[in-house]
Amino acid sequence: MADKSAHRAKTRARILGEAAGAMRMAGVQGIGVSALMQRAGLTHGGFYAHFESRDDLVAHAVDRMFEESAMILDRFLGERPDLAGLIDHYLSESAYRAVDRGCPLPGLSGEAARMPPDARLRFEAGVRRFREGIARALEIAGRSDGAALAHSLLAELVGAMTLARAMSDEGAALDFLASSRDRLKERIGLA
């Protein structure tokens, strides 16, 4: 029984991993159950053994994306916050290239309002955790305006990555990220 349960959990995790990658690359509408199950090496009929509906899958995939992002946030916003390190990492060339594995905010923010209700609530919770982590780090750094500044900092991080990924000229996109990193750190006193 334990083997069967472990296999089921492993299969569900594989489906969620594929769904999270597909959503990061093509958005919520870019995820079809048949294609997803084929990518995961499974049959379409097996889907309903793991999820109630496509909307249920989308909600759990949103959770999965934010769980993956939480590891990075913990590294930079944990016990000893490193906001400069977070900015450098978030707006780096490696993050720019990691569309299928990176933070879900740049790719999905524009779609959040059209997500299924449960997925949207989970998305908003992920945004809130990210913003609160930044606010806490700013307050630890002695900023009295940490909560308000966290809104702006998060918006600038996500906006810069979103715009860079929208550019057709990769060199210009990477320059845009470098300039954004420098100006953002300068603006909040981390330069």
Summarize the structure in words.
The chain contains 9 helices and no strands. The radius of gyration is 18 Å and the shape is globular. It has 191 residues and is mainly alpha-helical. It has helices at residues 2-26, 33-39, 54-77, 83-90, 93-97, 105-108, 117-140, 146-166, 170-187. The protein has a single domain, classed as Tetracycline Repressor, domain 2, CATH 1.10.357. Residues 9-69 form the HTH tetR-type domain. This is Transcriptional regulator, tetr family.
Attribute tags:
transcription, about 70% helix, DNA binding, HTH_TetR, single chain, Transcriptional regulator, tetr family, about 190 residues, mainly alpha, Tetracycline Repressor, domain 2, TetR_C
Which helices and strands appear, and what pairs or packs with what?
Layout: H1 2-26, H2 33-39, H3 54-77, H4 83-90, H5 93-97, H6 105-108, H7 117-140, H8 146-166, H9 170-187
Helix pairs in contact: 1-3, 3-7, 7-8, 8-9
Report the order of strands and helices.
Answer: HHHHHHHHH
CATH class value: Mainly Alpha
What is the average per-residue confidence, as pLDDT, rounded to a whole number?
A: 90
Rg over C-alpha atoms, rounded to the nearest angstrom: 18 Å
Biggest sheet layout: none
The termini sit apart by 56 Å
Number of helices: 9
**What would the principal axes of the Cα set say about the shape?**
globular
What CATH architecture would you give? Orthogonal Bundle
CATH topology category name:
Tetracycline Repressor, domain 2
Residue share in helix: over 70%
Number of domains: 1
Share of β-strand residues: under 5%
